[in-house]
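Lab notebook, bench 4. Still working through the backlog of constructs that have no structural model yet. Next entry is a single chain of 276 residues. Request: give me the structure tokens for it.
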Amino acid sequence: MNRHNAILEGLLFSAITLCLSYLVFWGPIAIFRVPTISFVSNVRGPIWAIILFFIGGFVPSLVAIILTRIREGTDGLKSLLQRCLQFRLGLRWYLSIVIVVLLGSAGQLLIHSLLGNSFNFSLYLAQLPSFIPLIIIGPISEELGWRGYLLSKLQLKLNAIVSSVFIGIVWAFWHLPLFFLIGTSQHELHLPFIGFLVGTVAVSIIFTWINNNTNSSIWAAILLHWLYTYAAQVNSTGVTRSPEYNWLEFSPYVLIAIVLLAIWKPKHLSLKQAKS
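Model written out:
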């Protein structure tokens, strides 16, 4: 594939994904203040709004599938989907995914504790029934797009850190309508968008690190997203929210990203690639 074309395709993917989010699915119901469904409160809106809300969450993966089919044909689409079944990551990288989420979540709870609050750790067990369904909302609905399609395109021309920052920004702005959509955690918990943006860029760097060390396995990204989403859900329902906590919430993941950049270097985020 021509590298210049790859960048254009990445930009096209980003533009289509943002436009669908803003103009078709999330934007209109946010502008007209129509509630959807909440996982952090008792908000429940009309069924049509809930349907738009959920379909909107699948936009990144659906756009990736459609563009891949158009540009690369059946073989390209088959290759994209096969990366979702690329389970042989090696024990080291399975452990790395788990440790990243454990450190990030523990850091958030440490901040919560330092602010003078307590946390009910039994929530991690109490909310286990939601763990399996969470693989759909976020991991599968997004990762074919962000890591499966966009990251693969950008890294044909750009280095790992630039690609990660670009994706983090697009990823955060894709979520922007949710900050105005009644019922979402972003709206109900009064999350500051700038803090969310910085955190999303940091998390994007972590995702690229995992991607570049697991032979671009989409399954690895799905697993990281899955565990991250579950931990974030549990923590969000158990912490005592305050402006201070909301601004500091993503700082553990920012620190993890900084450490990874210091060790693995920003050009490739992979020691193996950096030596080649």
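Notes after review: The mean pLDDT is 94. Residues 3-31 form the longest helix (29 residues). Flag for follow-up if needed.
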